[in-house]
């Protein structure tokens, strides 16, 4: 389906405005900078290919985020590979700065969460989306998202407390 000029301009503006956020979102799934760039590139291609199916341009941001999430999940399913740590992450670990340790614990705890919970946490706290926007991105109702968010935070709290107790012992 051919896209009209106005829709194309809106899509380009949306992608440009949110490029850092969608990269971070993809990275939160694939954990590798090159793979995240591939996911974003594929998501942009899919967005242009299916832009004609977008019914309401007001929901373009959440529509595009959904494409990025789905493309990330497709990538993980397709590659089923060991998560390779990229150079930037490796360097941040190698520097061993004190303030990096809590972030590493949080990253590990997030990685251990099932995808449905990790998605809600990432979209809510790292991408700063509202509950309704997350519901739109993940195609769920708002009460389901609230429940998942509550459960995810509870699981994270338990995980982080367990890790802290192990370090103390």
Polypeptide structure, described:
- The chain is mainly α.
- It has 2 domains: 1-95, Orthogonal Bundle (Rna Polymerase Sigma Factor, Chain: A); 97-169, Arc Repressor Mutant, subunit A (Orthogonal Bundle).
- Helix content is 78%, strand content 0%.
- The longest helix is centred in the C-terminal third of the chain and has 27 residues, at 142-168.
- The chain is globular, with a radius of gyration of 18 Å.
- Residues 81-86 and 88-101 have low confidence and may be disordered.
- This is RNA polymerase sigma factor.
- InterPro entries: RNA_pol_sigma-70-like, RNA_pol_sigma-70_dom, RNA_pol_sigma70_r2, RNA_pol_sigma70_r4_t2, RNA_pol_sigma_r2, RNA_pol_sigma_r3/r4-like, WH-like_DNA-bd_sf.
- Pfam families: Sigma70_r2 (PF04542), Sigma70_r4_2 (PF08281).
């Amino acid at each position: 389906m051919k896209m009209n000029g106005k829709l194309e301009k809106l899509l380009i503006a949306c992608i440009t405005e949110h490029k850092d956020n969608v990269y971070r979102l993809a990275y939160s799934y694939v954990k590798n900078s090159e793979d995240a760039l591939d996911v974003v590139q594929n998501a942009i291609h899919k967005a242009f290919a299916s832009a004609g199916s977008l019914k309401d341009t007001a929901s373009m941001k959440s529509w595009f985020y959904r494409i990025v999430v789905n493309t990330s999940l497709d990538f993980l399913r397709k590659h089923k590979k060991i998560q390779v740590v990229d150079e930037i992450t490796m360097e941040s670990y190698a520097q061993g700065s004190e303030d990096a340790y809590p972030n590493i614990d949080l990253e590990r705890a997030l990685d251990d969460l099932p995808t449905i919970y990790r998605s809600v946490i990432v979209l809510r706290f790292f991408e700063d989306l509202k509950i309704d926007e997350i519901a739109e991105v993940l195609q769920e109702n708002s009460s389901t998202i609230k429940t998942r968010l509550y459960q995810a935070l509870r699981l994270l709290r338990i995980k982080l407390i367990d890790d802290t107790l192990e370090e103390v012992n």
